[in-house]
Amino acid sequence: RKKCLLCNNVLMIVAASIMGCSKISQSFEMILIGRFMCGVSLCVPLHHQYVGEISPRKLRGFANSTSSFFWTLGKAIGQISGQRELLGSQALWPLLMASCGLPALVQLLTLPFFPESPPYLLMQKGDQEACKKAIRQLWGEGQHQAEIDDIMKEKATMKNTKILSVLELVKEPAFRWQLYMIVTLTATIQLCGINAV
Length: 197
Fold this sequence. Notes:
Elements: H1 2-20, H2 22-25, H3 28-40, H4 43-54, H5 60-81, H6 93-98, H7 101-110, H8 118-124, H9 128-139, H10 145-159, H11 166-171, H12 176-187
């Protein structure tokens, strides 16, 4: 999870650099390439997964809601800083385009000091000691055996669950309506007015 986030941050910094240099290069294609790179980044699902897994159970719902909060805050800051009086002028718009790299840079510099997700360490890596160490680093000293037991139960449940590939998921009739719903919601999210908000 953590390595994936770090790689994603590198992608965002490269995208921001490409967009920031588009005016100097006199290339609108660089803006398109940079925006495409921002679009294929996995910021939102990775944030949900990592933050949800490193949070104690009682704070998990709150931690998962931070993604939506910061997404909306980012859009608001982008709208405000895009005003002509701030960064929306002809001379400063490349800085506005490149500003998406700033949060990625902050996360790239701070994330190495955070441990890997405890469920990942225990379920995928099978390293119980590293899991306990990560839990102590994240949640402090104390009795965390109940959380480790929950992760072990989840691991046991996962053994009996067949993991489907993307192609198998698309072909599976039992998931067809859920898939239609997700695709429809994702495709129409821009029509809900979030940009206006």
